[in-house]
Design a protein that fits this description.
Strand content of chain A: 15-25%
Shape of chain A: globular
CATH class of chain B: Alpha Beta
Distance between the termini of chain A: 35 Å
Oligomer: heterodimer
Structural class of chain B: alpha/beta
Shape of chain B: globular
Number of helices of chain B: 6
Helix content of chain A: 25-40%
Helix content of chain B: 25-40%
Number of domains of chain A: 2
Number of strands of chain A: 15
Radius of gyration of chain A: 22 Å
Order of helices and strands of chain B: HHEHEEHEHEH
Structural class of chain A: alpha+beta
Strand order of the largest sheet of chain B: 2-1-3-4-5
CATH architecture of chain B: 3-Layer(aba) Sandwich
Chain lengths: 518, 171
């Protein structure tokens, strides 16, 4: 079914990705979500906006076969409400709660517990409203005394059930979050996540930055995915400005994105080995990752490639010597990864820990909307680079890895395969890199222009929706991490597993906290 | 097992020299006598606290433990509880949602304790600044001994900050 058949008045938005936009009413809001779900589509993102005199609006980005539908439902009244989507698209639940905490718009009849709000601002204050001043230093009343989070966890009762509270400060070097395990003996009956600890007002902060500077903040929504975010932001800004960057810039962006994917996968493979007792795996993979980061620093000026993707193009280039160095590095790394893969595959003790652990069956993945890397390990054959390839992926041969077992072993194997596929992509890009400029001047979009960016980052699809204000201002930016979809699925993945396997299962998903806490 | 041993033997030891301390990273004057500091040398334990970072600094803190930097080879290791720690390594602008957890972690760390703030956000609030949701720099919430700038700071810069805090004498 074509997107145009789903919603009347659907308008294509210009830009690198196929995006259609429409204003809908409450009935169409719900009916479209239902229809999209029946057609096998998914929820990509849900967010709200303050439309000043017009009231508020709630937005949904729905993935369909040919692209993404950006639906906007205008909301009026003192207590704006909209139809709950979580019964049809379960991933909507936490996004709806976050939209209430920030803007005071409520999904009628849905879970009404707070999500991003802990004790930093009181109920009844909504930081993302235009009337709320984010800068505490200029207006003392806008900064509130912090009080402890009093969150209504769901209690599991029964003989022998007890709770293990973990976090927000964890035992390792990881981001903060709280996990409440209800267990019987060693076995997990239920896990409830409490996130939002690193909420630092990113969406409000965007509105204080101009469209020319926002890429720096976008690149710090989730630091491990800086290229994916900066590209998605640049894509959205360029769509709003009606600009296409030069081909060389787009090819270099893909090279940076694949380098980011390889760096993260190498790190994860090391830690996944380590979490199952193979310390040698961590030593070897962290050595390979360090080599890779050093090449990035030498050739592009930053180990993690922060601030290299800018609206209008990229802020780096690749010389002939640099290209040669990359090709040599690819050859070296291919052999090293292949050798380590054999060691992982043939290690019975390691495989015993990985196989069957933290399993998400394809049916469950489909129902809950599992996405990205974890989705592909549970039979969700979706990769933007294959399904809806933008330049340069439309000219490259992208091998999509998928598995159906959905366990830690599948997520490990998938990373091995994606590393090797990304090395092939890097080679294709370097060998066929078009000549020309790496950036064009980025003009401010007209007041009210909007755009969307959608990029397959290493973790999954990163989505950015942007609305420009007058003279280069940003009226609203929503940056969406695939971890929104996948965190709730992790709660299911650990059920029935033993508590000591949680770190391994958690690592195999490696979800972002900062990316969803915003 | 043969493949594992072969790989380990083939790669060998890749560890590089550690950086020297840098007094310019100091936020507060030296608080401890050298005799006390000497006791930490070779056996320092660190509790890392992400108080609101984007996760970029965490990637580089992880890297300090890779075979090239081998922080643990200097007798410095990360521990799971603040009660076992001599030093807190704190990243991020401190989010208001982490303010209480950070204070409690600090209170749970036995004296004498060091605090090293890591990254531009930990030093100044960075791009996130101060707002309804962010307390800004780490020293707005707990006392800081040494602050390491960078977005993110390199593993060497982080190690230098740690070594500056304890002024590791005559390695």
């Amino acid at each position: 079914m074509k997107p145009e058949d789903l919603v009347p008045d659907l308008q294509p938005l210009p830009g690198a990705m196929p995006v259609w936009r429409a204003d809908v009413d409450s009935a169409a809001w719900r009916a479209t979500a239902q229809m999209v779900r029946e057609q096998g589509g998914r929820l990509v993102a849900l967010w709200g906006s303050d439309e000043a005199a017009e009231g508020f609006a709630v937005h949904a980005a729905l993935a369909v076969r040919d692209g993404v539908l950006w639906l906007t439902l205008p909301l009026r009244g003192r207590q704006p409400e909209y139809p709950d989507l979580s019964a049809v698209l379960p991933a909507a639940q936490r996004m709806q709660r976050a939209a209430y905490d920030l803007l005071g718009i409520r999904a009628a009849g849905a879970d009404a517990r707070k999500w991003l709000r802990h004790g930093a601002w009181p109920a009844g204050e909504f930081p993302l409203r235009k009337s709320f001043d984010a800068q505490g230093s200029t207006d003392a009343t806008r900064r509130f005394d912090t009080v402890a989070d009093d969150y209504p966890f769901v209690a599991v009762q029964g003989e022998g059930v007890h709770e293990i509270p973990v976090g927000p400060v964890h035992a390792g070097i990881i981001e903060p979050g709280h996990f409440r395990f209800s267990v019987v003996g060693e076995r997990v009956l239920r896990l409830e996540e409490r996130l939002g600890y690193v909420h630092k007002g990113i969406e409000k902060r965007f509105e204080a930055l101009g469209i020319h500077d926002g890429f720096r903040l976008a690149g710090r929504v989730s630091g491990d995915s800086t290229v994916a975010y900066a590209w998605a932001y640049a894509m959205a800004a360029e769509a709003a400005a009606g600009l296409t960057p030069p081909p060389r810039a787009l090819w270099l962006r893909a090279l940076l994105l694949e380098r980011e994917r390889v760096a993260n996968h190498l790190g994860d493979l090391g830690y996944l080995g380590n979490d199952a007792g193979l310390a040698m795996g961590l030593a070897q993979f962290s050595r390979l990752k360090e080599d890779w980061l050093r090449t990035s620093a030498a050739l592009f000026g930053h180990r993690y490639l922060m601030d290299r993707v800018i609206p209008g193009g990229v802020a780096c280039d690749l010389s002939a010597e640099g290209a040669h160095e990359i090709l040599q590095e690819l050859e070296r790394l291919r052999a090293e990864v292949a050798r380590l893969k054999t060691i992982f595959d043939e290690h019975p003790g390691l495989q015993d820990r990985l196989i069957g652990t933290g399993r998400v069956a394809p049916e469950l993945a489909d129902r809950l909307g599992l996405t990205g890397l974890a989705g592909r390990a549970s039979g969700m054959a979706w990769d933007l680079r294959v399904e809806l390839p933008c330049v340069p992926y439309d000219a490259l041969e992208v091998a999509m890895a998928t598995h159906r077992n959905g366990d830690v072993a599948a997520r490990v194997t998938l990373r091995f395969e994606e590393v090797l596929a990304s090395l092939d992509l890097c080679e294709q890009i370097v060998e066929r890199l078009p000549e020309g400029n790496v950036a064009t001047l980025f003009p401010s979009p007209r007041d009210g222009a909007s755009g969307a960016g959608w990029v397959e980052g290493w973790r999954g699809e990163v989505f950015v929706a942007l609305e420009a204000g007058a003279n280069g201002a940003l009226r609203r930016v929503h940056a969406h991490d695939p971890s929104w979809q996948n965190w709730p699925v992790l709660e299911h993945a650990v059920m029935g597993n033993i508590v000591p396997d949680f770190p391994l299962i958690n690592k195999s998903f490696n979800l972002s906290y900062s990316g969803v806490d915003l | 097992m043969y493949q594992i041993l072969k790989q380990i033997a083939k790669i060998g030891i890749v560890t590089e020299p550690a950086p020297e301390p840098d007094a310019s990273l100091r936020v507060t004057a030296e608080r401890l006598q050298r005799a006390v500091l000497r006791r930490f040398a070779g056996a320092l334990t660190i509790r890392q606290v992400d108080a609101g970072s984007c996760n970029g600094c965490e990637l580089e803190i992880h890297a300090t433990n890779n075979p090239y930097y081998n922080l643990e080879g200097l007798g410095i290791r990360f521990v799971a509880s603040p009660r076992h720690a001599d030093m807190l390594l704190v990243t991020g602008p401190v989010s208001r949602n982490m303010e209480i957890a950070l204070r409690r972690t600090y209170d749970a760390t036995p004296e004498p304790r060091f605090v090293v703030a890591v990254g531009d956000c930990g030093c100044s609030g960075g791009i996130f600044g101060e707002s309804y949701a962010s307390c800004g720099r780490v020293s707005n919430v707990i006392p800081v001994d040494v602050a390491v700038p960078g977005c993110p700071p390199t593993p060497l810069a982080i190690m230098q900050g740690i070594l500056t805090a304890i002024e590791l004498p005559d390695r």
